[in-house]
Specification:
Elements (H helix, E strand, L loop, with lengths): L1 H31 L8 H8 L2 H7 L1 H5 L1 H4 L7 H4 L2 H6 L5 H32 L3 H28 L12 H26 L4 H6 L2 H32 L5 H7 L2 H22 L2 H4 L2 H23 L10 H26 L13 H9 L1
Helix pairs in contact: 1-2, 1-9, 1-10, 1-17, 2-17, 8-9, 9-10, 10-12, 10-16, 12-14, 14-16
Length: 363
């Protein structure tokens, strides 16, 4: 049973990355007002409206908390560890549930207002609504960062409660942003090929694809920077309470997977996204995005699974990992496209873009 629950947690965390990243990029767009966000705003908003189903899908994790997390019923040797004693007040089931409710309240509250005012902007064209969206996005990003960081500490890092890292939450923030950006670029490509996406094809320029590719490049570089920074700090410190986390992941089967991530999740996309002829062509950019979506699964897998499979990936558990990824993914994707169909594919009456669109159509 614990094997299935661990697989469920892995799949849940991966698919949660996309709505988390969608919300962050959406608020970045409202803060900057960049033209780059115009073609993907509706895709980001649809992602942010899936937190309701993700909250429901979190219930099995709460029910199966005891088999998943060793701190629920710790072995005697763990209770004598001074690092664990320090965390006893924080790592307890009741407080864990309360914190989860707070995280979802923050995320769903932000999603409510971001979508409510966007929908009203479509209907009324009130220029004040753009200011409302900008006003909530600043503090919203701070709240988002705190919620994501603490949620990943609770739900993922506490799989190994004796270990700790101050960069850990931020790594998952960047994983979320990179996965979400890759996902919306891939969906944007599908829309440009679809008859329903005619309006998107007419209003999205190669320059905007170039901007989206630059953002994906920035997130890729930031992922590599934070991942290497965490490794460098722990390697330089060489503290016995910290190095086991990397010792497990740097050798054997997990070490081979780490090399795959270095080459395919950083080096290859970094080189590809430096090229303008890749970023300005939606077919080529979406191929890179599809690769990053798959490699993000591998990244989350490498971060999480060694916590309970120390000697490398097991074929038996791999079946359940893939099964849960497919099932939760199917539920999330169905919810996503259902939400995407509820609003026009491009924003209406946004004062930041109306003049530019008229100019483009006039030309």
């Amino acid at each position: 049973m614990s094997q299935i629950l661990h697989a469920y947690l892995l799949a849940y965390v991966y698919w949660l990355m996309i709505p988390l990243g969608c919300m962050a990029i959406l608020m970045m767009h409202h803060l900057t007002g960049g033209w780059w966000g115009y073609p993907i705003r509706r895709l980001l908003e649809a992602g942010s409206r899936t937190f309701g189903v993700m909250a429901l899908l979190f219930i099995p994790i709460l029910i199966g908390m005891k088999p998943i997390y060793p701190w629920v019923n710790p072995p005697e040797e763990m209770t004598h560890n001074p690092n664990y004693h320090f965390k006893l007040a924080y790592l307890n089931p009741s407080f864990f549930i309360v914190r989860a409710l707070i995280y979802f309240a923050i995320l769903m509250g932000l999603a409510h207002f971001l979508n409510k005012w966007s929908r009203e902007q479509d209907a009324t064209g009130d220029p004040r609504l753009a200011k409302y969206l900008e006003g909530i996005s600043g503090p919203g990003l701070i709240l988002w960062g705190m919620a994501v960081s603490f949620a990943m500490i609770d739900w993922v890092m506490s799989l190994e409660p004796e270990w700790f890292s101050t960069i850990y939450g931020m790594i998952f923030m960047i994983v979320a942003a990179l996965t979400a950006m890759s996902f919306v670029i891939f969906v944007l490509r599908r829309l440009t090929d679809d008859e329903r996406g005619k309006e998107v094809r007419e209003n999205v320029t190669p320059g905007q694809f170039n901007d989206l590719g630059n953002l994906m490049l920035a997130f890729t570089m930031l992922w590599a920077y934070l991942s290497f920074s965490q490794f460098l700090i722990i390697w330089a410190g060489n503290i016995k309470d910290e190095i086991p986390w990397y010792m497990t992941r740097a050798f054997g089967g997990w070490g081979k997977l780490a090399v795959v991530l270095i080459v395919l999740h950083f080096a290859l996309p970094f080189l590809l996204l430096l090229q303008r002829n890749v970023k300005r062509r939606v077919d080529r950019l979406s191929a890179v995005a599809a690769m990053m979506i798959v490699l993000s699964v591998v990244d989350v897998y490498w971060l999480m699974v060694p916590a309970y499979e120390k000697d490398g990936p097991h074929m038996g558990s791999l079946f359940w990992d893939i099964f849960c990824l497919v099932v939760i993914g199917a539920l999330w994707i169905a919810t996503y496209f259902w939400q995407l169909g509820k609003m026009p594919l491009l924003p209406l009456h946004d004062p930041r873009f109306e003049g530019e669109l008229q100019h483009e159509h006039g030309d």
